[in-house]
Amino acid sequence: GFCTNLLLSQTPEHILAQTNNRTEILCELKREHTGVYWYRWSQERQIFEFLLFSNTLGKAVYGANISQDKFSVHGARAHTSYSLHINHLHASDNGTYYCSVSQSFQLFLGSGTRLGVVDVLPLPLKTTQAPVSKKPVWYITKRKAASKKGPCSPLIWIPLTAGVLLLLLSLVHIAHRLHRLRQRLWLRIHRQ
C-alpha cells in the first residue's frame, strides 16, 4: 500500500518549466534509508508510473521505458537528501512526481510536486501601487463601538435571559417535588 507520512518532505509543491529546459525536485528524509523511489502520476493518461529507484551508493534501477538521459538522482548530506533531475522537458513530462521510501513493507510517499511544462513561460504580472490617499481616515476602536451599543446587543441578552428563566423555573419545580417527597417520607416514618 501507499501512505503519506512525515518520514520525508518534498519541495517544491509546483514547478512551471519551459520546453527543452531542465528542472529538479528535492526529497529530504528524516533519517537514512536504503534509497529513494520516484513515481509520476499522469492525470492525462491516468497512470501511476514507477520512474526509478536510487540507492545510497548512487546506483539507479529504472522503470520500463524510462530514459536514463531524462532522469537522474543526486544524493547528498549523509543519504538523507535526494534530488530528481529531469532533462529535456516536454509536455509528456507533465504530472505529479512523488519521492518515496520503503519501510515495514509499505511505501511512504512525499507530498508530491506538480510539474507543468509549457512552450512559453507567462510574463510576470506588473504590480501597480494604488495612489496614497491624503484624506484622514477615522477608525473606531472596539471599545468605542461597544460603548455606543452597550456591552451586549439585544440579540445576545434575549436568549440569555430566557435560558436563565427556564433554569430557575426548572429549579423551582425540582425543589417543590423534593419538598413533597420529604413530606411523604416523614409521614411514612411517623405512621410506623
Number of structurally distinct domains: 2
- CATH architecture grouping of the largest domain: Sandwich
Main sheet properties: 8 strands, mixed
- Tell me, rounded to a whole number, the average pLDDT: 80
Instruction: Compute the number of helices.
Output: 2
What does the radius of gyration come to?
34 Å
What percent of residues adopt helix (DSSP H or I)?
10-25%
Low-confidence stretches: 137-150
Q: At the third CATH level, what is the topology name of the largest domain?
A: Immunoglobulin-like
Strand content: 35-45%
The CATH superfamily of the largest domain is identified as: Immunoglobulins
Label the overall shape.
Answer: elongated
CATH uppermost class of the largest domain: Mainly Beta
Number of strands: 12
Q: Structural class, please? A: alpha+beta
Distance between the amino and carboxyl termini:
76 Å
